[in-house]
Amino acid sequence: MSRSRFYESFKRQLACTPLEYQHQRRMQRAYQRLQEKCSVTEVSYELGYQSLSHFSRRFHQHFGISPRQVTQAHKLS
Fold first, then answer.
1. Would the CA dihedral through 40, 44, 50, 55 be positive or negative?
2. Which of 38, 44, 61, 64 could crosslink 49 through cysteines, CB 3.0-4.6 Å?
3. What digits encode the pLDDT tens for the residues 23-40?
4. Tens of pLDDT along 40-75?
5. Does residue 8 have a pLDDT over 80?
6. What per-residue string of b and e applies to 22-38 under the rule 16 or more CB within 10 Å gives b?
């Protein structure tokens, strides 16, 4: 299968590009790890982000809250 055909098929089946899918999976994993009381820095590097600020920005864009807000919310509960 060619790259372009794979891309089209992937997008038709999952309604997003492979890159968007990878981003969604990484963000879901990040949220899960933060709920497990892991540090924001640890989660960022675990998921392959080279920059903590880039991770935080992408997380906020995806969920509308900062990673720190997730960790603080779970400290209270």
1. negative
2. 44
3. 999 999 999 999 998 999
4. 999 999 999 999 999 999 999 999 999 999 988 866
5. yes
6. eeeebbeebbebbeeeb
- Check if the beta carbon of residue 8 is closer than 8 Å to that of residue 2: no
Hey, what are 34's tokens?
């933060």
Cβ neighbours, 10 Å, residue 58: 19
The single residue listed with the structure tokens 């999976």 is 25
Contact 55, 27 (CB under 8 A): no
**DSSP code at position 48:** T
